[in-house]
UniProtKB/TrEMBL annotation:
Keywords from the named record: Transferase
This protein's record includes keyword Transferase: yes
Keyword Repressor on entry: no
Name listed for the protein in its UniProt record: Uncharacterized protein
Homology family: Belongs to the CoA-transferase III family.
Any one Gene Ontology cellular component term annotated for this protein: mitochondrion
Pfam families tied to this protein: CoA_transf_3 (PF02515)
Native species: Talaromyces amestolkiae
Example GO molecular function: succinate-hydroxymethylglutarate CoA-transferase activity
InterPro entries: CoA-transferase_III_domain (IPR050483), CoA-Trfase_fam_III (IPR003673), CoA-Trfase_III_dom3_sf (IPR044855), CoA-Trfase_III_dom_1_sf (IPR023606)
């Protein structure tokens, strides 16, 4: 049922529509997945190595951010209803959210009137050095985001003289001599393992991070300390590990209330207690393959 129909029955209802391209505009009837929106609304163009082709983000980030925007808009509508007594229709779509989350990149283009600077891999277009570098066995991200931090980095690399070199003494100069400096840094980081660099940089005040794969992330000591992985019992699979809710509350303890459902596990419960169908009707639907 559309919003206008249910609004006549109960004007307090809050109705959220989540689509690829929204309820209006030339694409409103077009089907859309996350990756299509990433492609057409700027994100894919900004993602990938400097000289490589556009690539999609490793997870369906536009789907996820659209869900978060929808959740926030529902809460805002609930607050508005508390003041006005009226519900409203929330038109949430992937293309709008993707455009909004271009953030500083979009604002730069709007202000300059010029095209963006394209893909930068892990690097930053206007801050150097601020990117990933190869180590002897992987990669490490180094954040020499200002002159002071660059000085710390030079010291830890055993190259304090770089911070006084006229070619690198300010960020503007480092940007101007980006390629040369990046190659020099990587020639040093490649001499040690990632773990060795983590120990060297610990407590230095320099922002840095190992570049981990997914297993490394889930096994990470900080991930475990924050309780981001839980083990629950599944009726068919036995103990399984799942991701935890990411927000910690001071007066509540959000938990995983039930394991992922089996196909059709709650069919009877939903159709009988929520929809109000009889057991005979439910069985008839099952026998016809309408429900599982």
């Amino acid at each position: 049922m559309d919003y206008e129909s249910i609004r006549k029955l109960n004007p307090r209802l809050i109705y959220a529509s989540i689509t690829g391209y929204g309820q209006t505009g030339p694409y409103s009837n077009r089907p859309g997945f996350d990756v299509m929106v990433e492609a057409e609304f700027g994100l894919m163009h900004l993602t990938g190595s400097r000289d490589g082709p556009p690539v999609k983000v490793g997870v369906a980030v536009t789907d996820l951010t659209t869900g978060l925007y929808a959740c926030n808009s529902i809460m805002a509508a609930l607050l508005a209803r508390a003041n006005t007594g009226e519900g409203q229709h929330l038109d949430v779509c992937l293309s709008d959210v993707q455009t909004a989350t271009l953030a500083n990149m979009a604002e730069s283009v709007l202000i300059s009137g010029k095209r963006d600077s394209g893909r930068w891999g892990t690097a930053h277009p206007s801050v150097v050095p601020y990117q990933g570098f190869k180590t002897a066995d992987g990669d490490i991200f180094l954040g020499g985001a200002n002159d002071r931090l660059f000085g710390i980095l030079c010291e830890k690399l055993g190259k304090s003289e770089w911070s006084k070199d006229p070619k690198y003494v300010t960020n503007n100069e480092r940007v101007r001599n980006r390629k040369e400096l990046e190659d020099l840094i990587e020639s040093e980081t490649a001499k040690r393992t990632t773990q060795e660099w983590l120990k060297i940089l610990e407590g230095s005040g320099l922002p840095y991070a190992a570049v981990n794969d997914v297993l490394g992330t889930l096994d990470h000591e900080h991930t475990k300390a924050r309780g981001m992985v839980q083990e629950i019992d599944h009726p068919s699979c036995g103990p399984i590990k799942v991701l935890s809710p990411p927000v910690k509350y001071s007066n509540a303890d959000p938990s995983i209330r039930s394991p992922p459902p089996l196909l059709g596990e709650h069919t009877d419960e939903v159709l009988e207690s929520v929809v109000g169908l009889s057991r005979e009707k439910i069985q008839s639907l099952k026998s016809k393959g309408v429900v599982a």
